[in-house]
Design brief:
203 residues, Rossmann fold, 7 helices
Amino acid sequence: MTTIYLARHGQTEWNVTGKMQGWGNGELTESGIRDAHSLGNRLQDISIDVIYSSTSKRAYQTAELIAAERTAPIIKDDRLREMSFGDWEGRLREEIEIEFATEYKAFWETPHLYERNSGELFADVAKRAEEIYKHIIAKHPSGTILIVSHSIFLKILTAYLRNLSLDKLFTQTYLGNASLTKIHVTEGIPEFIFEGDRSHCEE
């Protein structure tokens, strides 16, 4: 059996101001740093064999804060990055909603029908989510893995594990900053133990 923990990065300045991040990056806030430390403390008695992280700074820094004094290696992989939002990145959600009303509505309500010529489509992210998951499971048929990534990427990954179609993507549990999800994978079958838990975080 392989145990997989999924963690979303800590809160960033862009999260607070309502900016779309994607491949862009807002710096971790003081709260985001504290929550990452708290998540590390929550996991301190669990032996983690390896940590996989998105190459985005906010995720990699969160992984480092969680790891603290652990000897487990941190492996950065571009496939764990957030969905690219193209020319929406760094812009306020409320501005995007006004200027790109149809596309923005499709993004949140009908992701399987969302289309733009800038950034990635949900299907693009689903492809790399499946690819990196299969890579990690093949490499670690047993043991305990921590994956640090981003909200939409993690939703797409969990949808894949549940065999959910993209139109059901946002019906899943909300994954807040520094949230933790635990999954057991036995003979290729994933079982969700808990999801999106933030009991270790300051509110």
